[in-house]
Design brief:
The complex is a heterodimer of chains A (304) and B (402). Chain A has a single domain (4-290), classed as ABC transporter involved in vitamin B12 uptake, BtuC. Helices cover 70% and strands 4% of the residues of chain A. Chain A contains eleven helices and four strands; from the N terminus they run H-H-H-H-E-E-E-H-H-H-H-E-H-H-H. By secondary structure, chain B is an all-alpha fold. Chain B has one domain (100-397): ABC transporter involved in vitamin B12 uptake, BtuC, CATH 1.10.3470. Chain B is built from 17 helices and four strands. A two-stranded antiparallel sheet of chain B has the order 1-4. Chain B has a two-stranded antiparallel sheet with strand order 2-3. In chain B, a hairpin with a 2-residue loop joins strand 2 (220-223) and strand 3. In chain B, helix 5 (100-125) packs parallel to helix 10. Chain B is globular and about 70 Å long. Classes of the chains: A mainly alpha (304), B mainly alpha (402). The interface between A and B is large, with 55 and 58 residues.
Chain lengths: 304, 402
């Protein structure tokens, strides 16, 4: 017998988790939409964001010990800079290269980030400072509490999705980004600097991804290598939502979070530990088979 | 970068008519044993694949083909025949010359050559991006271990079952190619990688895979109890024989209609479909052939390590094999041999070097490979083989370059 209160709790946690995934997924969609790069290193970028906060705010590695809020701001700025650097140093060389090259490059980038972090910090879990482990929680009906990091995740991802949609629709830069996404050559003819457009997309995307990684780490109380798995899970989200749709990524991520929590709660006693993470993968396969362009994705029509 | 731009890729090696197929001309089946692939370079007598379009092929002086069979032969040029004769004894003598560690490394090179050849059939010929190398090898390894340990049927039946099972799974996960292509396949096979790792790590499903961590029985026979493989040298020869078989098979595959169809699909699947090729069926065929080879490599790998655990079959393995394939040069068997040998040797050297500095410096290995692969893709996307071909072309025309 499924208890309503338990079901509600699992659902709420799933949505909270999904909202955190949503930030990483939005980062992915943003890059894909504007540049066409499928970023397989999304999980590692989130990991980088999560660890950077630890490094900045605790005596680990460098003894800076910034206050938590400053550490977060620095991490976000670092995300912006990293986006610019990655685009300039790596991805610029791969514009127009076959899709295989781009995929392998992002995979390699993931390997580089993981290897670097593993070497500098080690494979251990690193706890977050007190200030980043909020102990409040949101009380919901049925006596269910949503933990602070998930609450923040829901709020932040809603804010980010709304802001991005408004940004794309109502600002000049947003419409430039859209123009670049829909037809690069036509946009260039109209005097748009595609270079700057792509740069902006990378910077925004990695910054948003770092927020996701940070919140995910907060929900676990600290940064660990489990965050890497997010990079794979969000594929289920973005494919379901349609690869190039930002609201699609958001909805897809919520579905993935829900699936993971429900799977973890109801299927794990039967199928063993870890089902929660595998269920979204199975879901991904079904989506690819049944509706490869997802909910809101642009369908590509091929002609000879 | 968009999926429909895949056809834009400019890869002369793949577009080449099979009768001029450079990779065919290699006596590679004997050569790769050479632990230093650079030695064997002069043997590739065919002109570089990076030949300017429209230019005639450079043939060695004073050699003529008098029959069709000669023209189509696997070993065509005089220098190739010489190289073949000279190279055949090398792998047979290696166990006498090399110590235990080096021999073990060469064995690993052979195993990875089989695995990367499988990837090469799927990716180099058919152009499907499969990111489940680790999962495929794991399936082969666990399946063959179960056959060997529980039925006592011997290594070869174990390998065959492992290979066939892997082929079946590869085909199953190739089914999305019915509707989608390009990176969707990459994503779905990446999902397979994670599902497979979870599956093998999960001891509650041990009734299927037989336990997450297992030891491979020692002294197993090839078939039943006959011809037991026990020492490292015996293992070396067995792996070498299998590898030679698969290299020969792949070389010959590239000369048949099947591989031409694969290449057609790789170049432009829409045109292939218009020309009456059943694209879906042939893609699945590529998955099956490649999957079989990767599965066999997986079962050999389990024999080689003597112990299986999901940790050996992670996404890092996939990435490593991609480094090997792309470094050597995609689309050619010889490139696979070169890439695997080079990467494995360099990897071993680097590991030793890193260990002298710090115990945890091995974490830098993926970093090194990541940087390497990005540089290779940025500088010479066709791999080392194409670069070497250019050097050879230059030398051949020197000093009267036109």
């Amino acid at each position: 017998m499924v208890e309503i209160a338990t079901l509600f709790e699992v659902t709420v946690t799933g949505i909270g988790l999904g909202a955190v995934y949503a930030l990483v997924a939005i980062g992915f969609s943003l890059i894909y939409k504007v540049t066409g790069v499928l970023n397989f290193a999304q999980g590692q970028l989130a990991l980088l964001g999560a660890y950077l906060v630890v490094v900045l705010s605790t005596p680990l590695l460098i003894s800076l010990e910034l206050p938590a809020s400053v550490a977060i701001v620095v991490t976000l700025l670092f995300g912006l800079v990293l986006g610019v650097v990655l685009e300039r140093v790596i991805f610029r060389h791969f514009i127009g290269e076959p899709v295989l090259s781009v995929i392998i490059v992002t995979l390699a980038l993931g390997g580089i980030i993981t290897g670097g972090i593993r070497f500098l910090i080690g494979p251990q879990y690193r706890a977050y400072p007190e200030a980043l482990r909020p102990d409040w929680s949101l009380s919901l009906p049925f006596g269910v509490d949503l933990s602070a990091s998930f609450t923040l995740g829901v709020i932040l991802s809603l804010v980010v999705v709304t802001a991005l949609m408004l940004f794309f629709r109502y600002t000049v830069i947003g419409s430039i980004l859209r123009a670049g996404a829909s037809d690069q050559q036509a946009a260039m003819v109209l005097g748009i600097s595609i270079e700057r457009t792509i740069l902006l997309a990378w910077a925004l995307s990695i910054s948003i991804t770092s927020i996701g990684g940070l919140l995910f780490a907060m929900s676990a109380g600290g940064a660990g290598f489990t965050i890497e798995a997010v990079g794979i899970l969000i594929f289920a989200a973005v494919v379901f939502g349609g690869l190039d749709s930002i609201p699609g990524a958001f909805i897809g991520a919520l579905v993935v979070g829900l699936l993971q929590q429900l799977g973890a709660f109801y299927a794990e006693p039967i199928l063993g530990p870890g089902v929660g993470q595998v269920l979204p993968m199975a879901f991904l396969l079904v989506v690819i088979l049944v509706k490869p362009y997802g909910l809101f994705g642009t369908e590509r029509i091929e002609r000879l | 970068m968009l999926p429909n731009e895949r056809s834009d890729r400019d890869e002369p090696t793949d577009a080449e008519p099979a009768d001029a197929e450079p990779a065919d001309a290699e006596p590679t089946d004997a050569e790769p044993a050479d632990a230093e692939p650079a030695d064997a370079e002069p043997t590739d007598a065919e002109p570089a694949d990076a030949e300017p379009a429209g230019g005639g092929r450079l043939m060695p002086c004073g050699e003529y083909f008098t029959s069709y069979a000669d023209r189509m032969g696997l070993v065509r040029w005089r220098i190739e025949k010489v190289a073949l004769v000279l190279a055949i004894p090398i792998p047979l003598l290696l166990p006498l010359l090399l110590g235990g560690g080096a021999l073990s490394m060469v064995t690993r090179i052979f195993i990875f050559i089989i695995a990367v050849l499988g990837l090469h059939v799927i990716l180099g010929y058919a152009g499907e991006i499969v990111l489940a190398q680790g999962a495929f090898m794991a399936i082969g390894a666990y399946a063959s271990t179960r056959i060997v340990a529980e039925t006592g049927a011997g290594l070869i039946p174990g390998m065959l079952v492992g290979g066939l099972l892997t082929a079946a799974v590869a085909v199953l996960f190739g089914l999305p190619s019915w509707r989608v292509k390009g990176f969707y396949i990459a994503i779905s096979t990446l999902a397979l990688q994670f599902i497979a790792l979870w599956f093998f790590e999960n001891n509650e499903l041990a009734f299927i895979h037989g336990g997450s961590q297992q030891n491979i029985p020692r002294d197993v026979g090839l078939v039943g109890e006959y011809v037991t493989i026990s020492s490292a040298t015996e293992q070396y020869f067995f792996v070498f024989a299998v590898m030679a078989l698969f290299v020969l098979l792949t070389l010959n595959l590239s000369r048949t209609g099947i591989a031409r169809i694969f290449r057609g699909i790789h170049e432009n699947d829409l045109s292939s479909a218009v020309l009456g090729i059943d694209v879906f069926r042939n893609k699945l065929l590529a998955y099956a052939i490649g999957g079989f080879m990767i599965g066999v490599a997986g079962s050999l790998y389990s024999l080689y390590i003597g112990f299986i655990s999901p940790d050996y079959f992670t996404i890092e393995l996939t990435l490593e094999h991609y480094v090997m394939l792309l470094l050597g040069g995609m689309g050619r068997v010889w490139g696979v041999v070169l890439g695997v040998s080079l990467v494995t040797i360099v990897q071993d050297e680097i590991r030793e070097l890193l260990l002298t500095y710090a115990a945890d410096a091995t974490a830098l290995e993926p970093l090194f490979f990541g940087v390497l692969i990005i540089v290779v893709l940025a500088v010479e996307p066709k791999g080392l083989l194409a670069g070497l071909g250019q050097i050879k072309d230059y030398l051949r025309k020197w000093p009267y370059a036109y």
